[in-house]
TrEMBL record:
InterPro entries, alphabetized: MRPP3_PIN_dom, PRORP_C
Lineage: Eukaryota, Metazoa, Chordata, Craniata, Vertebrata
Organism per entry: Marmota monax (Woodchuck)
Protein origin, superkingdom: Eukaryota
Any Pfam family: PRORP
The name this protein goes by in its record: PRORP domain-containing protein
Length: 136
């Protein structure tokens, strides 16, 4: 699928274009705003593919609440390729139907965590959850 220079092969890209609407930008460092605009403008169903964490864009947002909102949107719309072997089908990691933040019902809490404080991509989820229940 990808050659040594990490470019899509023409036949593989033609398959992708038959399956989805595609937006393309020149291979420059300023393509992130275009990618985000195209995804947002295409509706809630639209997904985007990139390995970029978009940290620099999140850092430009005015407050923590807006940054968190962007992160949640990113988790629901960013796809990651998990199968990149030549001659095989393109496989994407599933988008979660739940939020990977602390969740509570009032007397119990579910807290996602990593033992090694590893920075993850937005589409990667914690491997462990701590479940706490209030004593009655």
């Amino acid at each position: 699928m990808l050659t040594q220079r990490f470019r899509w092969r023409k036949d593989e890209m033609e398959k992708v274009q038959k399956q989805a609407s595609c937006f393309f930008a020149d291979d420059i460092s300023e393509d992130d705003p275009f990618l985000l605009y195209a995804t947002l403008n295409s509706g809630n169903h639209c997904k985007f593919i990139t390995k970029d964490l978009m940290r620099d864009h999140k850092a430009c947002l005015p407050d923590i609440k807006t940054q968190r909102l962007f992160f949640k949107w990113q988790q629901g719309h960013q796809l990651a390729i998990i199968n990149r072997f030549p001659g095989s089908k393109i496989t994407f990691q599933h988008i979660l139907t739940y939020d990977t933040v602390v969740q509570t019902t009032g007397d119990s809490w579910h807290i996602p965590y990593d033992e090694d404080l590893v920075e993850r991509y937005s589409y990667e989820v914690p491997t462990k959850w701590l479940c706490l229940h209030r004593k009655t």
